[in-house]
Tetratricopeptide repeat-containing protein (Rhodobacter aestuarii), 493 residues
Amino acid sequence: MWRAPDRALRLGLTVATLCLAAGGGATPPALAEAPPPQSSRSETISLADASTEQIAVAATQALAAQQTDLAVMLAEVLLQRDPKNPLGHYIFARASLLVRDTATAREAARRSFFTAQTPVQHYEAARLAGQVAVADQRLGAAQFWARQTIQFAPDPRARAVGISDFRRLRAASPTAFRFKLGIRPSNNVNGGAEERTNVIDGFDAVGWLSDDAMALPGVVGTLDAEVSRRIAHTPESETRLGFSLYARAVDFEGRPMMVPAYTPGDPAPDPVEIRNSDYSSTSLGTHLEHSRSFGTTFGLQARLETGRNWQAGQQAYDWIGAEVQGTKILTGGNRLSFALAQEERNWQGSPRNDTRRALSLGLSGRRTADHLPGDWRIGVSASQLESNFTQARDWTLTGSAGFTPKAQLGPLAMTFSAGFSTSVYPDYTVIGFHPDGGRQDETAFAEIGIWAPKVGVAAFTPEMRLQAVQVESNISRFTRSELSMTLGWRSSF
Protein backbone atom coordinates (compact mmCIF):
# COMPACT_ATOMS: atom_id res chain seq x y z
CA MET A 1 0.00 0.00 0.00
CA TRP A 2 1.21 3.49 -0.83
CA ARG A 3 2.03 5.64 2.20
CA ALA A 4 2.14 9.43 2.48
CA PRO A 5 5.37 11.07 3.78
CA ASP A 6 5.36 11.81 7.49
CA ARG A 7 6.62 15.37 7.08
CA ALA A 8 4.20 18.28 7.03
CA LEU A 9 2.79 18.71 3.59
CA ARG A 10 2.12 21.93 1.80
CA LEU A 11 0.80 22.38 -1.68
CA GLY A 12 3.30 24.83 -3.13
CA LEU A 13 1.46 25.09 -6.43
CA THR A 14 -1.94 26.53 -6.97
CA VAL A 15 -4.72 24.22 -8.05
CA ALA A 16 -4.88 26.20 -11.28
CA THR A 17 -1.16 25.61 -11.89
CA LEU A 18 -1.64 21.86 -11.39
CA CYS A 19 -4.47 21.85 -13.90
CA LEU A 20 -2.34 23.66 -16.47
CA ALA A 21 0.61 21.35 -15.88
CA ALA A 22 -1.59 18.36 -16.57
CA GLY A 23 -3.01 19.84 -19.74
CA GLY A 24 -0.97 17.48 -21.89
CA GLY A 25 -2.54 14.38 -20.30
CA ALA A 26 -6.06 13.00 -20.60
CA THR A 27 -8.26 13.37 -17.55
CA PRO A 28 -9.86 10.04 -16.59
CA PRO A 29 -13.60 10.38 -17.28
CA ALA A 30 -14.69 9.19 -13.85
CA LEU A 31 -12.50 11.73 -12.21
CA ALA A 32 -13.80 14.55 -14.36
CA GLU A 33 -16.76 14.65 -11.97
CA ALA A 34 -14.56 16.46 -9.44
CA PRO A 35 -15.60 20.13 -9.33
CA PRO A 36 -13.41 22.60 -11.24
CA PRO A 37 -11.25 25.01 -9.27
CA GLN A 38 -13.12 28.01 -7.97
CA SER A 39 -10.41 30.53 -8.77
CA SER A 40 -7.33 30.84 -10.96
CA ARG A 41 -5.55 33.20 -8.59
CA SER A 42 -1.97 32.17 -7.75
CA GLU A 43 -1.74 31.35 -4.06
CA THR A 44 -0.14 28.82 -1.77
CA ILE A 45 -2.71 26.56 -0.08
CA SER A 46 -1.96 24.38 2.94
CA LEU A 47 -3.34 20.86 2.60
CA ALA A 48 -4.97 21.32 5.95
CA ASP A 49 -6.83 24.36 4.57
CA ALA A 50 -7.61 22.99 1.10
CA SER A 51 -11.11 21.74 0.51
CA THR A 52 -11.79 18.12 -0.45
CA GLU A 53 -12.90 19.32 -3.89
CA GLN A 54 -9.63 21.20 -4.43
CA ILE A 55 -7.57 18.16 -3.42
CA ALA A 56 -9.68 15.92 -5.69
CA VAL A 57 -9.03 18.18 -8.69
CA ALA A 58 -5.31 18.34 -7.92
CA ALA A 59 -5.08 14.56 -7.50
CA THR A 60 -6.94 13.99 -10.76
CA GLN A 61 -4.67 16.28 -12.73
CA ALA A 62 -1.52 14.87 -11.09
CA LEU A 63 -2.54 11.36 -12.10
CA ALA A 64 -3.30 12.50 -15.65
CA ALA A 65 0.15 14.12 -15.80
CA GLN A 66 1.69 10.82 -14.53
CA GLN A 67 2.89 12.53 -11.37
CA THR A 68 2.22 9.29 -9.52
CA ASP A 69 3.80 10.09 -6.16
CA LEU A 70 1.94 13.39 -5.89
CA ALA A 71 -1.35 11.76 -6.96
CA VAL A 72 -0.98 9.00 -4.36
CA MET A 73 -0.06 11.49 -1.65
CA LEU A 74 -3.21 13.49 -2.37
CA ALA A 75 -5.32 10.31 -2.56
CA GLU A 76 -4.18 9.39 0.95
CA VAL A 77 -5.30 12.77 2.17
CA LEU A 78 -8.72 12.17 0.57
CA LEU A 79 -9.02 8.78 2.27
CA GLN A 80 -7.89 10.17 5.62
CA ARG A 81 -10.78 12.62 5.41
CA ASP A 82 -13.24 10.00 4.13
CA PRO A 83 -12.27 6.29 3.94
CA LYS A 84 -15.16 5.77 1.49
CA ASN A 85 -14.01 8.38 -1.02
CA PRO A 86 -14.24 6.57 -4.40
CA LEU A 87 -11.74 8.93 -6.06
CA GLY A 88 -9.06 8.16 -3.48
CA HIS A 89 -9.44 4.41 -4.04
CA TYR A 90 -9.51 4.93 -7.82
CA ILE A 91 -6.20 6.83 -7.79
CA PHE A 92 -4.58 4.15 -5.61
CA ALA A 93 -5.78 1.48 -8.07
CA ARG A 94 -4.59 3.37 -11.15
CA ALA A 95 -1.20 4.18 -9.65
CA SER A 96 -0.72 0.60 -8.41
CA LEU A 97 -1.51 -0.76 -11.86
CA LEU A 98 1.10 1.55 -13.38
CA VAL A 99 3.80 -0.08 -11.20
CA ARG A 100 2.31 -3.59 -11.79
CA ASP A 101 1.19 -4.00 -8.18
CA THR A 102 -2.00 -5.76 -9.26
CA ALA A 103 -2.87 -7.09 -5.79
CA THR A 104 -3.17 -3.54 -4.42
CA ALA A 105 -4.79 -2.33 -7.63
CA ARG A 106 -7.41 -5.10 -7.49
CA GLU A 107 -8.49 -4.28 -3.94
CA ALA A 108 -8.46 -0.51 -4.50
CA ALA A 109 -10.49 -0.78 -7.74
CA ARG A 110 -13.03 -2.99 -5.99
CA ARG A 111 -13.37 -0.45 -3.15
CA SER A 112 -13.70 2.37 -5.65
CA PHE A 113 -16.58 0.54 -7.36
CA PHE A 114 -18.47 -0.29 -4.19
CA THR A 115 -18.07 3.22 -2.74
CA ALA A 116 -18.98 4.95 -6.02
CA GLN A 117 -21.92 7.33 -5.78
CA THR A 118 -22.79 7.97 -9.43
CA PRO A 119 -23.20 5.77 -12.54
CA VAL A 120 -20.12 7.33 -14.17
CA GLN A 121 -17.99 6.56 -11.10
CA HIS A 122 -19.28 2.97 -11.15
CA TYR A 123 -18.50 2.73 -14.87
CA GLU A 124 -14.92 3.99 -14.61
CA ALA A 125 -14.16 1.92 -11.51
CA ALA A 126 -15.47 -1.19 -13.29
CA ARG A 127 -13.34 -0.42 -16.35
CA LEU A 128 -10.26 -0.13 -14.16
CA ALA A 129 -11.08 -3.32 -12.24
CA GLY A 130 -11.46 -5.11 -15.56
CA GLN A 131 -8.06 -3.89 -16.72
CA VAL A 132 -6.52 -5.19 -13.50
CA ALA A 133 -8.22 -8.57 -13.98
CA VAL A 134 -6.92 -8.83 -17.54
CA ALA A 135 -3.40 -7.95 -16.34
CA ASP A 136 -3.70 -10.85 -13.86
CA GLN A 137 -5.13 -13.15 -16.57
CA ARG A 138 -8.27 -13.57 -14.45
CA LEU A 139 -10.66 -13.71 -17.40
CA GLY A 140 -13.66 -14.80 -15.35
CA ALA A 141 -13.37 -11.73 -13.13
CA ALA A 142 -12.75 -9.58 -16.21
CA GLN A 143 -16.07 -10.78 -17.65
CA PHE A 144 -17.84 -9.79 -14.43
CA TRP A 145 -16.39 -6.27 -14.59
CA ALA A 146 -17.20 -5.99 -18.31
CA ARG A 147 -20.80 -6.71 -17.40
CA GLN A 148 -20.65 -3.91 -14.82
CA THR A 149 -19.47 -1.47 -17.48
CA ILE A 150 -22.51 -2.48 -19.56
CA GLN A 151 -24.78 -1.95 -16.56
CA PHE A 152 -23.44 1.56 -15.84
CA ALA A 153 -22.50 2.68 -19.37
CA PRO A 154 -23.12 6.44 -19.69
CA ASP A 155 -24.11 6.29 -23.37
CA PRO A 156 -24.90 3.78 -26.18
CA ARG A 157 -21.35 3.85 -27.51
CA ALA A 158 -19.87 2.93 -24.12
CA ARG A 159 -22.47 0.17 -23.78
CA ALA A 160 -21.55 -1.25 -27.20
CA VAL A 161 -17.86 -1.23 -26.22
CA GLY A 162 -18.70 -3.07 -22.99
CA ILE A 163 -20.71 -5.71 -24.86
CA SER A 164 -17.88 -6.19 -27.34
CA ASP A 165 -15.35 -6.50 -24.50
CA PHE A 166 -17.49 -9.07 -22.69
CA ARG A 167 -17.93 -11.25 -25.77
CA ARG A 168 -14.24 -11.08 -26.57
CA LEU A 169 -13.33 -12.05 -23.00
CA ARG A 170 -15.88 -14.87 -22.96
CA ALA A 171 -14.45 -16.26 -26.20
CA ALA A 172 -10.91 -16.07 -24.79
CA SER A 173 -11.76 -17.65 -21.45
CA PRO A 174 -11.06 -21.39 -21.17
CA THR A 175 -13.94 -21.81 -18.70
CA ALA A 176 -17.57 -21.10 -19.57
CA PHE A 177 -20.61 -21.02 -17.29
CA ARG A 178 -24.34 -21.00 -17.92
CA PHE A 179 -26.85 -20.68 -15.09
CA LYS A 180 -30.60 -20.21 -15.22
CA LEU A 181 -32.98 -20.22 -12.26
CA GLY A 182 -36.75 -19.91 -12.65
CA ILE A 183 -39.82 -19.82 -10.40
CA ARG A 184 -43.15 -20.47 -12.11
CA PRO A 185 -46.49 -20.16 -10.30
CA SER A 186 -49.08 -22.12 -12.30
CA ASN A 187 -52.67 -23.31 -12.14
CA ASN A 188 -51.63 -26.72 -13.49
CA VAL A 189 -48.16 -27.83 -12.35
CA ASN A 190 -48.83 -31.56 -12.90
CA GLY A 191 -50.31 -31.46 -16.43
CA GLY A 192 -53.66 -32.57 -15.07
CA ALA A 193 -57.03 -32.77 -16.81
CA GLU A 194 -59.80 -30.19 -16.67
CA GLU A 195 -62.73 -32.64 -16.33
CA ARG A 196 -63.17 -35.52 -13.90
CA THR A 197 -64.54 -37.85 -16.59
CA ASN A 198 -62.31 -39.47 -19.21
CA VAL A 199 -63.97 -39.68 -22.63
CA ILE A 200 -62.39 -41.29 -25.71
CA ASP A 201 -63.60 -40.12 -29.12
CA GLY A 202 -65.50 -42.90 -30.92
CA PHE A 203 -66.34 -44.87 -27.77
CA ASP A 204 -69.32 -44.71 -25.43
CA ALA A 205 -67.39 -45.80 -22.36
CA VAL A 206 -66.68 -43.11 -19.76
CA GLY A 207 -63.84 -43.31 -17.24
CA TRP A 208 -63.38 -41.57 -13.92
CA LEU A 209 -60.07 -39.83 -13.22
CA SER A 210 -58.22 -39.99 -9.91
CA ASP A 211 -57.45 -36.89 -7.87
CA ASP A 212 -53.79 -36.80 -8.92
CA ALA A 213 -54.86 -36.80 -12.61
CA MET A 214 -56.70 -33.50 -12.15
CA ALA A 215 -55.07 -30.09 -12.64
CA LEU A 216 -53.41 -28.97 -9.40
CA PRO A 217 -52.12 -25.43 -8.73
CA GLY A 218 -48.74 -24.68 -7.22
CA VAL A 219 -45.25 -23.42 -7.96
CA VAL A 220 -42.56 -25.00 -10.14
CA GLY A 221 -38.90 -24.22 -9.55
CA THR A 222 -36.24 -25.05 -12.13
CA LEU A 223 -32.45 -24.93 -12.17
CA ASP A 224 -30.50 -25.26 -15.42
CA ALA A 225 -26.72 -25.00 -15.12
CA GLU A 226 -23.71 -25.92 -17.24
CA VAL A 227 -19.95 -25.50 -16.91
CA SER A 228 -17.35 -26.40 -19.53
CA ARG A 229 -13.60 -26.18 -19.95
CA ARG A 230 -11.77 -25.67 -23.24
CA ILE A 231 -9.35 -28.54 -23.82
CA ALA A 232 -8.16 -27.70 -27.35
CA HIS A 233 -8.49 -24.80 -29.76
CA THR A 234 -7.25 -23.25 -32.98
CA PRO A 235 -8.20 -19.90 -34.55
CA GLU A 236 -11.09 -21.67 -36.35
CA SER A 237 -12.22 -24.24 -33.76
CA GLU A 238 -12.40 -25.25 -30.14
CA THR A 239 -13.20 -28.39 -28.14
CA ARG A 240 -14.81 -28.32 -24.70
CA LEU A 241 -15.51 -30.84 -21.95
CA GLY A 242 -18.35 -29.98 -19.64
CA PHE A 243 -21.01 -30.97 -17.13
CA SER A 244 -24.69 -30.07 -16.95
CA LEU A 245 -27.39 -30.16 -14.29
CA TYR A 246 -31.13 -29.74 -14.61
CA ALA A 247 -33.49 -29.94 -11.65
CA ARG A 248 -37.25 -29.43 -11.33
CA ALA A 249 -39.17 -29.22 -8.07
CA VAL A 250 -42.89 -28.75 -7.40
CA ASP A 251 -44.67 -27.22 -4.43
CA PHE A 252 -48.43 -27.87 -4.55
CA GLU A 253 -50.84 -25.30 -3.19
CA GLY A 254 -52.16 -26.56 0.14
CA ARG A 255 -52.01 -30.31 0.77
CA PRO A 256 -53.89 -32.07 -2.05
CA MET A 257 -55.13 -35.58 -1.23
CA MET A 258 -56.05 -38.63 -3.31
CA VAL A 259 -57.65 -41.99 -2.73
CA PRO A 260 -55.30 -44.80 -3.83
CA ALA A 261 -56.52 -47.19 -6.50
CA TYR A 262 -58.51 -50.16 -5.19
CA THR A 263 -60.57 -53.06 -6.54
CA PRO A 264 -64.30 -52.34 -6.88
CA GLY A 265 -66.18 -54.05 -4.06
CA ASP A 266 -63.31 -53.63 -1.59
CA PRO A 267 -63.44 -50.96 1.12
CA ALA A 268 -62.02 -47.66 -0.03
CA PRO A 269 -58.58 -46.96 1.47
CA ASP A 270 -57.88 -43.83 3.44
CA PRO A 271 -56.83 -40.76 1.39
CA VAL A 272 -53.12 -40.04 1.13
CA GLU A 273 -51.31 -36.80 0.40
CA ILE A 274 -50.10 -36.15 -3.14
CA ARG A 275 -46.39 -35.62 -2.56
CA ASN A 276 -44.40 -32.79 -4.12
CA SER A 277 -41.48 -35.16 -4.65
CA ASP A 278 -43.57 -37.37 -6.96
CA TYR A 279 -43.33 -34.62 -9.60
CA SER A 280 -39.67 -33.74 -9.15
CA SER A 281 -36.92 -34.67 -11.60
CA THR A 282 -33.16 -34.25 -11.91
CA SER A 283 -30.75 -34.82 -14.79
CA LEU A 284 -26.97 -34.86 -14.52
CA GLY A 285 -24.82 -35.16 -17.63
CA THR A 286 -21.37 -34.76 -19.12
CA HIS A 287 -20.59 -33.73 -22.68
CA LEU A 288 -17.85 -33.27 -25.25
CA GLU A 289 -18.41 -30.42 -27.68
CA HIS A 290 -16.53 -29.32 -30.79
CA SER A 291 -17.21 -26.07 -32.67
CA ARG A 292 -15.72 -24.99 -35.98
CA SER A 293 -16.17 -21.89 -38.13
CA PHE A 294 -15.90 -21.91 -41.92
CA GLY A 295 -15.18 -18.32 -42.83
CA THR A 296 -17.22 -15.57 -41.25
CA THR A 297 -20.72 -16.71 -42.26
CA PHE A 298 -20.97 -20.43 -41.45
CA GLY A 299 -20.33 -22.47 -38.32
CA LEU A 300 -20.96 -26.01 -37.07
CA GLN A 301 -21.11 -27.50 -33.60
CA ALA A 302 -21.15 -31.21 -32.69
CA ARG A 303 -21.93 -32.51 -29.21
CA LEU A 304 -21.79 -35.94 -27.56
CA GLU A 305 -23.53 -36.27 -24.20
CA THR A 306 -24.32 -38.94 -21.66
CA GLY A 307 -26.02 -38.81 -18.30
CA ARG A 308 -28.63 -40.06 -15.87
CA ASN A 309 -32.16 -38.95 -15.02
CA TRP A 310 -34.01 -39.33 -11.73
CA GLN A 311 -37.79 -38.97 -11.33
CA ALA A 312 -39.68 -38.83 -8.03
CA GLY A 313 -36.39 -39.44 -6.26
CA GLN A 314 -35.76 -42.73 -8.08
CA GLN A 315 -33.31 -43.49 -10.87
CA ALA A 316 -35.33 -43.40 -14.11
CA TYR A 317 -33.03 -43.88 -17.11
CA ASP A 318 -29.52 -43.41 -18.47
CA TRP A 319 -29.08 -41.66 -21.78
CA ILE A 320 -26.50 -41.10 -24.47
CA GLY A 321 -27.03 -38.68 -27.34
CA ALA A 322 -25.47 -36.76 -30.19
CA GLU A 323 -26.39 -33.43 -31.76
CA VAL A 324 -25.16 -31.34 -34.69
CA GLN A 325 -26.04 -27.66 -34.99
CA GLY A 326 -25.27 -25.21 -37.77
CA THR A 327 -25.61 -21.48 -38.37
CA LYS A 328 -25.42 -19.60 -41.67
CA ILE A 329 -25.42 -15.81 -42.01
CA LEU A 330 -27.48 -14.90 -45.07
CA THR A 331 -27.49 -11.82 -47.25
CA GLY A 332 -28.95 -8.91 -45.34
CA GLY A 333 -27.77 -10.24 -41.98
CA ASN A 334 -30.54 -12.82 -41.50
CA ARG A 335 -29.49 -15.99 -39.69
CA LEU A 336 -30.44 -19.53 -40.73
CA SER A 337 -29.99 -22.28 -38.14
CA PHE A 338 -30.58 -26.02 -38.03
CA ALA A 339 -30.10 -28.89 -35.59
CA LEU A 340 -30.16 -32.69 -35.82
CA ALA A 341 -30.25 -34.81 -32.67
CA GLN A 342 -30.63 -38.42 -31.55
CA GLU A 343 -30.84 -39.76 -28.01
CA GLU A 344 -30.94 -43.33 -26.65
CA ARG A 345 -32.62 -43.95 -23.29
CA ASN A 346 -32.16 -47.11 -21.24
CA TRP A 347 -34.76 -47.29 -18.47
CA GLN A 348 -33.65 -48.79 -15.17
CA GLY A 349 -35.56 -51.74 -13.72
CA SER A 350 -37.53 -52.06 -16.95
CA PRO A 351 -37.02 -53.65 -20.38
CA ARG A 352 -38.10 -50.34 -21.93
CA ASN A 353 -35.69 -48.63 -24.33
CA ASP A 354 -36.38 -45.40 -26.24
CA THR A 355 -34.82 -43.66 -29.22
CA ARG A 356 -35.69 -40.03 -29.83
CA ARG A 357 -34.78 -38.20 -33.04
CA ALA A 358 -35.32 -34.50 -33.68
CA LEU A 359 -34.85 -31.98 -36.48
CA SER A 360 -35.29 -28.23 -36.24
CA LEU A 361 -34.93 -25.27 -38.62
CA GLY A 362 -34.97 -21.61 -37.69
CA LEU A 363 -34.69 -18.23 -39.36
CA SER A 364 -34.13 -14.95 -37.54
CA GLY A 365 -33.37 -11.38 -38.46
CA ARG A 366 -33.77 -7.72 -37.64
CA ARG A 367 -36.43 -5.41 -39.03
CA THR A 368 -34.95 -1.94 -39.51
CA ALA A 369 -37.90 -0.19 -41.15
CA ASP A 370 -39.30 2.92 -39.51
CA HIS A 371 -42.56 1.09 -38.85
CA LEU A 372 -42.25 -1.47 -36.01
CA PRO A 373 -38.47 -2.16 -35.99
CA GLY A 374 -37.23 -5.10 -33.95
CA ASP A 375 -35.91 -8.67 -33.98
CA TRP A 376 -38.02 -11.48 -35.44
CA ARG A 377 -37.71 -15.27 -35.51
CA ILE A 378 -39.60 -18.25 -36.91
CA GLY A 379 -38.96 -21.95 -36.49
CA VAL A 380 -40.25 -25.44 -37.29
CA SER A 381 -39.29 -28.73 -35.68
CA ALA A 382 -40.13 -32.41 -35.90
CA SER A 383 -39.42 -35.22 -33.45
CA GLN A 384 -40.11 -38.93 -33.17
CA LEU A 385 -39.87 -41.35 -30.26
CA GLU A 386 -39.43 -45.04 -31.01
CA SER A 387 -39.89 -47.39 -28.06
CA ASN A 388 -40.64 -50.98 -27.17
CA PHE A 389 -43.19 -49.46 -24.77
CA THR A 390 -46.13 -48.92 -27.12
CA GLN A 391 -47.79 -46.18 -25.03
CA ALA A 392 -44.71 -43.94 -25.44
CA ARG A 393 -44.32 -44.03 -29.23
CA ASP A 394 -45.10 -40.67 -30.77
CA TRP A 395 -44.22 -38.05 -33.37
CA THR A 396 -44.60 -34.28 -33.06
CA LEU A 397 -44.59 -31.32 -35.44
CA THR A 398 -44.19 -27.77 -34.09
CA GLY A 399 -44.19 -24.29 -35.61
CA SER A 400 -43.48 -21.05 -33.75
CA ALA A 401 -42.84 -17.36 -34.33
CA GLY A 402 -41.61 -14.53 -32.15
CA PHE A 403 -40.93 -10.81 -32.22
CA THR A 404 -39.01 -8.47 -29.93
CA PRO A 405 -39.84 -4.83 -30.77
CA LYS A 406 -37.12 -2.23 -30.48
CA ALA A 407 -39.58 0.21 -28.92
CA GLN A 408 -40.07 0.03 -25.16
CA LEU A 409 -43.06 0.73 -22.97
CA GLY A 410 -41.40 3.29 -20.74
CA PRO A 411 -38.52 1.44 -19.03
CA LEU A 412 -39.90 -1.97 -20.03
CA ALA A 413 -38.84 -4.08 -23.00
CA MET A 414 -41.07 -6.89 -24.24
CA THR A 415 -40.95 -9.96 -26.43
CA PHE A 416 -43.82 -11.98 -27.90
CA SER A 417 -43.98 -15.55 -29.14
CA ALA A 418 -46.65 -18.08 -30.11
CA GLY A 419 -46.89 -21.44 -31.77
CA PHE A 420 -48.80 -24.60 -32.48
CA SER A 421 -47.90 -28.28 -32.31
CA THR A 422 -49.56 -31.59 -33.05
CA SER A 423 -48.53 -34.86 -31.39
CA VAL A 424 -49.70 -38.34 -32.37
CA TYR A 425 -49.30 -41.51 -30.29
CA PRO A 426 -50.28 -44.11 -32.91
CA ASP A 427 -50.37 -47.14 -30.57
CA TYR A 428 -51.88 -45.53 -27.47
CA THR A 429 -54.70 -47.45 -25.76
CA VAL A 430 -56.84 -46.97 -22.65
CA ILE A 431 -57.84 -50.30 -21.09
CA GLY A 432 -58.00 -51.89 -24.53
CA PHE A 433 -59.74 -48.94 -26.23
CA HIS A 434 -57.75 -47.66 -29.21
CA PRO A 435 -59.03 -44.42 -30.76
CA ASP A 436 -58.97 -44.18 -34.54
CA GLY A 437 -55.51 -42.88 -35.51
CA GLY A 438 -54.23 -43.22 -31.96
CA ARG A 439 -54.06 -40.50 -29.35
CA GLN A 440 -53.90 -37.06 -30.97
CA ASP A 441 -52.99 -33.90 -29.03
CA GLU A 442 -53.11 -30.42 -30.54
CA THR A 443 -51.38 -27.69 -28.55
CA ALA A 444 -51.50 -23.91 -28.89
CA PHE A 445 -49.17 -21.76 -26.80
CA ALA A 446 -48.32 -18.09 -26.37
CA GLU A 447 -45.89 -16.15 -24.23
CA ILE A 448 -45.10 -12.54 -23.33
CA GLY A 449 -41.77 -11.66 -21.73
CA ILE A 450 -41.25 -8.38 -19.88
CA TRP A 451 -38.02 -6.96 -18.43
CA ALA A 452 -36.35 -3.64 -17.63
CA PRO A 453 -32.95 -3.43 -19.43
CA LYS A 454 -31.63 -0.61 -17.25
CA VAL A 455 -32.56 -2.27 -13.96
CA GLY A 456 -30.47 -5.13 -12.66
CA VAL A 457 -27.10 -6.33 -11.50
CA ALA A 458 -24.07 -6.79 -13.76
CA ALA A 459 -26.24 -6.50 -16.89
CA PHE A 460 -28.60 -9.20 -15.62
CA THR A 461 -32.15 -7.97 -15.29
CA PRO A 462 -35.23 -9.52 -13.65
CA GLU A 463 -37.70 -10.93 -16.14
CA MET A 464 -41.34 -11.98 -15.99
CA ARG A 465 -42.85 -14.33 -18.57
CA LEU A 466 -46.62 -14.83 -18.89
CA GLN A 467 -47.46 -18.15 -20.54
CA ALA A 468 -50.68 -19.75 -21.74
CA VAL A 469 -51.07 -23.31 -23.04
CA GLN A 470 -54.18 -25.02 -24.37
CA VAL A 471 -54.19 -28.73 -25.33
CA GLU A 472 -57.08 -30.45 -27.11
CA SER A 473 -57.00 -34.26 -27.28
CA ASN A 474 -59.24 -37.06 -28.53
CA ILE A 475 -58.72 -38.58 -25.07
CA SER A 476 -60.15 -36.09 -22.61
CA ARG A 477 -57.63 -37.05 -19.91
CA PHE A 478 -55.08 -35.06 -21.93
CA THR A 479 -57.28 -32.05 -22.70
CA ARG A 480 -55.94 -29.38 -20.42
CA SER A 481 -54.99 -25.74 -20.08
CA GLU A 482 -52.37 -23.87 -18.12
CA LEU A 483 -51.75 -20.26 -17.18
CA SER A 484 -48.40 -19.53 -15.57
CA MET A 485 -46.00 -16.75 -14.75
CA THR A 486 -42.24 -17.39 -14.74
CA LEU A 487 -39.94 -15.18 -12.70
CA GLY A 488 -36.24 -15.28 -13.45
CA TRP A 489 -33.21 -13.39 -14.72
CA ARG A 490 -31.98 -12.71 -18.22
CA SER A 491 -29.02 -10.98 -19.78
CA SER A 492 -29.87 -7.42 -20.79
CA PHE A 493 -28.04 -7.76 -24.11
